[in-house]
Amino acid sequence: MEVFNTPNKVIITCNRRLSPYLAQEVEALGFVIVRTFNTGVEVNLSVNECIRLNLNLRVASQVLYEIKSFRARNADELYKALVTVAWEELLPFDGYFSVTSNVHNETITTPLFANVKVKDAIVDRIKDRKGVRPDTGPELNRAVIHLHWIDDKAEIFLDTSGETLAKHGYRKHPGKAPMLEALATATIMATQWDGKSPFVNPMCGSGTLAIEAALMAQKRMPGLQRMNYAFMHFIGYDEKVFFEERRRLKELTDKNNLPHIVASDISDVAIEIAKSNARTAGVEHLITFEVGDFAKTTIPEGNGVIMFNPEYGERLGTHSKLEATYKRIGDFMKQECKGYRGYVFTGNLDLAKKIGLQASRRFEFFSGKLDCRLLQYELYEGSKERPGTVATPPEIRERTRERDSERTSERTEAKEGDKPTDRKIHKLIRIRDKNDR
């Protein structure tokens, strides 16, 4: 099976809602996308071309090369189909491999059982042909096989990535509630930052947003941080292809582009962690780190991007304290960041209302399982009016949900007894004022 030079179906996975940004990356590399879905894109490529994907993609999670698709109603049929695959031509008989899976089949109570069936089929096939059993285990640092099995439709893939591509290899000290590197990249892509104007990241935590901005500005690809991928452990791998791509990426790195990037945090410990991560990523010299309250953050002259990723009130902090923080964020952007585009990434839309500014755009993301928004604010000089913008379908849906939520809340409160409370009185006043306007 000459997979390294034979194009076939390839699925590039990503976290939910990141596929539009992943598609941008894949197309920028010159590849044609067959289809895009919520958690990835499909292309038709060889494993050698997958090597290039692995080294270049910032938003992806895994790059999966299809070996076989078939029907399987249960574990026995799964085994029978997989034992016919020429695994001895793909996996070294004295090597090591692991199995991952995405399984939704009524006969399977745990994906681990399906994984065992895949391992048994591969091991039995290789032992029958070579007389030796390869080692298996959970580590993803060697060859990885991936099973995708929904109802009776099964697909088996070579996972050419192994460890996820969503982590870019520089964050040795994650800090508290860190943003995933792939997500940070996607949010910066959403801002359409040009990579040359200032980028300011108050409340930077472990520095992920500032570091990703610096990496993007210098076109420094995440593959330069990593020397081990699953594709290296399949039969037919030619290391010349890998090292040639690494050489090309080094030559493309623009070390002369030095945008003004500022990262600040009130915690000196967080700043030390951010500096260490930036040093590992090779971009510490591009970032000005500051310790102090976000309202003291240096705002370089010119038109740039300022992005906040404050606490959401879900895992850290308390809601009442965060209300005041979000209000201060809005005041700071309005008073000190004129001429910039402001962004706040949050998983708490109630807190976002405390910012006190009208968002011009809303981008939908997930952080883990938490439904999040990246809110965009136009911070104009003087009294310049904001030009009209055409809302995208996701933005229209979001605004409709918020309006319906407010109406439901108003109806519910109206039914809660006759005795007014301070909260009800304040709510009624706000409704009255809104109607008066």
From TrEMBL:
GO biological process terms, semicolon-separated: methylation
Key words of the record: Methyltransferase, RNA-binding, Transferase
Pfam families per the UniProt record, alphabetical: RlmL_1st (PF22020), THUMP (PF02926), UPF0020 (PF01170)
Keyword match Glycoprotein: no
Biased composition (Basic and acidic residues): 395-423
Gene3D superfamilies hit by this protein: 3.30.2130.30, Vaccinia Virus protein VP39 (3.40.50.150)
THUMP domain boundaries: 49-160
Ranges where the record places region Disordered: 384-437
PROSITE patterns, per database record: THUMP (PS51165)
GO molecular function terms attached to this record: methyltransferase activity
Stored PANTHER family: RIBOSOMAL RNA LARGE SUBUNIT METHYLTRANSFERASE K/L, RIBOSOMAL RNA LARGE SUBUNIT METHYLTRANSFERASE K_L
Stated name of the protein: Class I SAM-dependent RNA methyltransferase
Species classification: Bacteria, Pseudomonadati, Bacteroidota, Sphingobacteriia, Sphingobacteriales
